[in-house]
Amino acid sequence: MIENFGIVLGEWRLLATGLFNTVWICALSGVLSLILAVFVSLLLVSSRHGVRRVAQGAVDVMRAIPFLMLLFIVYYCLPAVNVRLSSWTCGLSALVVYNTAYFAEILRGAWAHLPREQTETGHAYGYAGLRLYHRIILPQIFIASGPVLGNQMITLVKNSAFLMVITIPDLTFMANQVQAIYFVPFETMLIAVGLYWVVCSTIEGTVRRLDRIAAVRGHE
Amino acid sequence: MVWTSLLTELAKGTLTTITVSMAGLAVGMLSGLLLALVRAGAVPVASQAIAVYVSITRATPMVTLALLIFFGLPALGLALSPLVAAILIISINTSVFQAEIWRASLLDFPRGQLDAARASGMTRVRTFQRIVFPQVWRASLPALVNEMTLVIKGSPAIAVIGVVDLTRVAVRWTTQTYQPIPPFLTATVIYVAVVMCLIWVQRYTERRIVEKYGIL
């Protein structure tokens, strides 16, 4: 058992590459989907009934299907309609689209709980439209939804492991390689699990720290 | 003709997805409750060990867990069929989330009722059976149904170890016919339908509990 761990640690370069790929693809898709979610959340509260219905329907379908399903749809179905993407682009866009739906729903929920007075005071001070959203509403719903967004980030990291099935060399893929070379599956996967734990705990810790800053600034 | 055989295949896959998920959920519910009870009971060492175990398992992706169980356990001398491994994977994953659900409602449980049960001479086991469980169960039910939808959404991880669930049926159909759109769109519709059903069940049970007992 101990020497098996030694074998796996001897291949730390492969695992480090996998960890690095997992971290950057998650960070990039996290940032991209948060930006997109800001715009999608605007559609979700649109005053036009039709726009709102279509946007909510799309978000609900995304939130009802497994991530692997979406990944396969992007990977297998797009080439059938003559859209050819590399597996990296496939993986990244599937992660971004899937998480945008969750993030947008989280932002919409936070917005719904924002006291009306905030918007009204903003109006009274001459804020309207995008400027009102950008300066008054958005900062508050970001702070209010911080912990939930953090949890969704953790889900994103866990979903990213599915990328191995379309041969993206993420942490799980690399761990699977190492275990296949030396046939030490238990030890290798255990180390991979430990690394995922470190990543997720870091996200959790960051969210907690941000929450404390928000509390100091007078948000609960 | 092609459509009939596609639908039959997908129906079989759906059945596998649902059966394995529900079996995993049932096992996970019991072990989750057990984990929560030991943790809430503040048993020295065991409580801390469970806290660490829950934290690690909650951070583990379903696929990684699937590979750990399916390849790792046989290497330790414990051979598993894919189906048994699949149920084990889902129950390990869901048990830690269910443990947190049970724990939350156990922590919320009013102390006064426990004291009252003690005063009436009930043993701890009986108190749990008659007083605690019926109420905690009600409080946890909506979150448990929500966990079901999460399990359904995580279940394609078992396709990776070779179980022919709904996702794998769609993939297999694609590689055999080179026509990805019919199987994947149909499978998507099935997943959405299953999850929507569960959401409906959740709202229905919540409403029934409120009607029957006044509060959740």
List the helices and strands and how they pair.
The complex is a heterodimer of chains A (220) and B (216).
Chain A: H1 2-10, H2 12-44, H3 49-64, H4 67-80, H5 87-112, H6 116-124, H7 129-144, H8 146-160, H9 171-182, H10 185-216
Chain B: H1 2-40, H2 46-58, H3 62-75, H4 82-107, H5 111-119, H6 124-154, H7 157-160, H8 166-177, H9 181-213
If you had to describe this structure to a student in words, what would you say it looks like?
Chain A has a single domain, classed as MetI-like (MetI-like fold), CATH 1.10.3720.10. Chain A has helices spanning 2-10, 12-44, 49-64, 67-80, 87-112, 116-124, 129-144, 146-160, 171-182, 185-216. Helices cover 83% and strands 0% of the residues of chain A. Chain A is built from ten helices and no strands. Chain A is mostly helical and 220 residues long. With 216 residues, chain B is mostly helical. Chain B has one domain (2-213): MetI-like (MetI-like fold). In chain B, 84% of the residues lie in helices and 0% in strands. Chain B contains nine helices and no strands. Chain B has helices spanning 2-40, 46-58, 62-75, 82-107, 111-119, 124-154, 157-160, 166-177, 181-213. The A-B interface holds A 61, 64-69, 72-73, 76-77, 79-81, 154, 157-162, 164-165, 171-172, 175-176, 179, 183-186, 189-190, 192-194, 196-197, 199-201 and B 55-56, 58-65, 67-68, 71-76, 149, 152-157, 159-160, 167, 170-171, 174, 179-181, 184, 187-188, 191-192, 195-196.
Any idea what the CATH architecture of chain B is? Orthogonal Bundle
CATH topology value of chain B: MetI-like fold
Helix content of chain A: over 70%
Helical stretch tally of chain B: 9
Helix/strand/pairing category of chain B: mainly alpha
Count every helix of chain A, treating DSSP H or I runs of 4 or more residues as helices.
10
Mean of pLDDT of chain B: 88
Largest interface: A-B, 42 and 41 residues
Main pleated sheet of chain A: none
CATH topology of chain A: MetI-like fold
Which CATH class of chain B?
Mainly Alpha
* Uncertain parts of chain A: none
Identify the CATH homologous superfamily of chain A.
MetI-like
- Class computed from helices, strands and strand pairing of chain A: mainly alpha
How many independent structural domains of chain B? Answer: 1
Strand content of chain B: under 5%
